[in-house]
C-alpha cells in the first residue's frame, strides 16, 4: 500500500500543534497559579507582620502558620518561617522559637537573611537559663561579630547582643568591655541603633561609680539629633529619673522641656509639661510657674489642666498674691475636676482664709463642700 506522505505531514503538523497548545496552556496555568501563590503569600505576610508590629502575637502566629502549612518548603515562605520564629520569641515561647529557628535555618541555609536569623536564634538561646544554650548563643554571636566578611550592621547586632547576654548572666566586666567597644563608635543616624543603645547600657552600668562620665555619655545621645526621636526620648527619661533621684529639680524641669520638644504631640510629651511645673514648684521657682502656666494650658492634656492651675494657685499664694490664688482655687472647687484635687484646692483655700483670719468664711466653705 503506497504511503501517503501528505497525510503523514498533516498528522505531524496537527499533533505538533496540539502538543504545543497543551504545553502553552499548562505553562500559562502554572504561571497563573504561581502568581496567585506569590500574591497570597505577600498579602498574608503583610497581615502577619502588621499584627506582630502591633504586639498581637497570638494572631500573628496564626497568620504565619497559614503560609507555612500550605507551602512548608517553598522559598517564598522563608520570611514566614523567620517571622514565625521571631514572634514566638516575642510571645515568650522561647523553646518553640528556638526549634522554629532551627527548622528555618536548616530549610533555607543560604537565604540572605540567614546571618540576621542566626543572631536572633542566638538571642533566643541566650534567654535560657541553660548554660549550654547560653554558651552556644555566645559562640554563634562571636563568630558573626568578629567575621569581617559579614555585613557591618549584622556584626554590630551580634556584638551588642553578646554584651546583653553577659549582662543578663552577671558578667558585668565582659558586658562593659563590649558595650564600650560599640559606644566608642560615631552615631550618624538612627540606624546606628546598636551603638546608641550600647552607650545607654554602658551609662547605666557605670552610673554609680562614674556618674559624671555616665551623664556625659547620655547627653551625647540626647543632644545629638542624629540619634533619632525614640532614642533621644529613652535617654531623656533616664536623665529625668537620675535628676529626680538626686533632687536636682532645676535640671529635672529642664529635661521635661526637652521631652516635650522632642515629642510635642505624644501623651508623654504633654505629660512632661505638667511634670515641669511640679519640678519648678519643688525648686521654689514660683515666678516661672506663674509666667509659664497660661501659655502651657492649651498643650497640657485636658485632664491635667486643673492640676496645672492648682500648681499656679499655690505659687501665687507663695508669692503673696492671695486674691489671684483664691480665684483659681474657687474655680477648681466648683469645677468637675477630680475629687481629690478639689479637696486639695479646698484645703489650700481654707489655709488662705485662716491666714487672713476669715474663720466664718472658712467654716462656710467647708460646709458647702461637704454638702455638695
Largest β-sheet summary: none
Estimate the global geometry from the Cα principal axes.
Answer: elongated
Strand proportion, as a percent range, falls in: under 5%
Return the average pLDDT rounded to an integer: 89
Query: What portion of residues is helical?
Result: over 70%
Count of DSSP H/I helices: 18
Count of individual beta strands: 0
Structure characterization notes:
This protein has 372 residues and is mostly helical. It has helices at residues 5-53, 57-70, 78-90, 94-107, 114-126, 131-145, 152-168, 172-183, 193-206, 211-222, 229-245, 249-262, 267-282, 286-296, 305-318, 322-333, 339-355, 359-371. Helix 1 packs antiparallel against helix 2, helix 10 packs antiparallel against helix 11 and helix 12 (249-262) packs antiparallel against helix 13 (267-282). Mean pLDDT is 89; it is low at 16-32.
Short descriptors:
372 residues
Short summary:
77% of the residues lie in helices and 0% in strands. It has helices at 5-53, 57-70, 78-90, 94-107, 114-126, 131-145, 152-168, 172-183, 193-206, 211-222, 229-245, 249-262, 267-282, 286-296, 305-318, 322-333, 339-355, 359-371. The radius of gyration is 33 Å and the shape is elongated.
Tell me the layout of helices and strands.
Layout: H1 5-53, H2 57-70, H3 78-90, H4 94-107, H5 114-126, H6 131-145, H7 152-168, H8 172-183, H9 193-206, H10 211-222, H11 229-245, H12 249-262, H13 267-282, H14 286-296, H15 305-318, H16 322-333, H17 339-355, H18 359-371
Helix pairs in contact: 1-2, 1-3, 2-3, 3-4, 3-5, 4-5, 5-6, 5-7, 6-7, 7-8, 7-9, 8-9, 9-10, 10-11, 11-12, 12-13, 13-14, 13-15, 14-15, 15-16, 15-17, 16-17, 17-18
